[in-house]
Design goal:
The protein is an all-beta fold and 257 residues long. β3 (25-26) and β4 form a beta hairpin. Residues 182-191 and 215-224 have low confidence and may be disordered. It is elongated, with a radius of gyration of 21 Å. Helix content is 2%, strand content 52%. The chain starts with a strand and ends in a 9-residue tail after the last strand.
Length: 257
């Protein structure tokens, strides 16, 4: 039995042997062929299948557009469409995993203090570790290729941010301004492909700069532009992907639902 798949990147058809009864899973940039004792992954960029021998009855599979993750006990394998390879790390089975289009992020299950995190970048095929740190609490958020942690140390009333972007690989840790009490109660979120927000701070993965959100509600994205709406002043604001500040829109602009 053979599976044949066409890649618009290579411009060719590629064949892969498989067992009868197999149901392939087609993602945006990866084809996954699960069989009893293996996962085979084929990248649209190479057209070459690479096989991971693992008992799929005990393993778990998580998928994104350009990255997939297989976990079995304390072993984690991540396949990248860009490197067309499986990448292995020993990671405790208790650690949580979050899969985005170009990122796989594993982190300690604690909610405070922070127990550490390990990020896989599908573009480079490299792993980036964020060490454990003392903090009272923390929040995180992510977009397709950007990740954002905020750490709050209550005794010193200080806030730190740890950010990652596939456009400039490596964790960036910096001190940020105190967060207003309203946002200390919760909130924050993610929007856009390279924007991410936690509490009242937005971070651009392209400029690696922070843009305060003020009282605005969580922004909505439309392509390369995001729109936020302030219910107190009845004012809307827009922010381009390369922007460093919000631009006031005409009063009465209808917010995006």
């Amino acid at each position: 039995e053979y599976l044949r798949v066409f890649s618009t990147v290579t411009g060719k058809r590629h064949a892969h042997p498989l067992s009868a009864g197999t149901t392939p899973l087609l993602l945006s940039e990866i084809l996954i062929v699960p069989e009893t004792d293996r996962y085979s992954a084929l990248s649209a960029y190479s057209g070459v299948a690479h096989t991971l021998l693992v008992d799929i009855s005990s393993a778990t599979l998580r998928t994104g557009d350009s990255v997939i993750c297989v976990r079995d006990g304390n072993d984690a394998w991540v396949f990248s469409a860009f490197t067309s390879q499986w990448h292995h790390r020993a990671i405790p089975s208790t650690w949580r995993v979050e899969i985005r289009d170009r990122l796989a992020v594993f982190r300690h299950p604690s909610i405070g203090p922070f127990g550490g995190a390990l990020l896989f970048d599908a573009l480079s095929g490299d792993w980036f570790e964020l060490a454990a740190r003392a903090c009272t609490s923390f929040r995180s958020s992510s977009s397709l290729s950007t990740y954002f942690f905020v750490f709050h140390n209550l005794p010193t009333a200080t806030y730190e941010a740890a950010t990652y972007s596939t456009h400039a690989p490596g964790w960036q840790v910096s001190t940020i301004a105190p967060i207003p009490p309203l946002y200390n109660l919760g909130g924050g979120g993610a929007f856009g492909s390279d924007y991410v927000a936690v509490f009242d701070h937005a971070f651009s993965g392209l400029t690696r700069a922070f843009v305060p959100l003020g009282r605005a509600l969580a922004p909505r994205t439309a392509g390369l532009v995001s729109v936020a709406y302030d219910t107190v002043t009845d004012q809307a604001f827009s922010l381009g992907i390369l922007g460093r500040s919000w631009v006031t829109m005409p009063r009465g602009t209808v917010p995006i639902d």
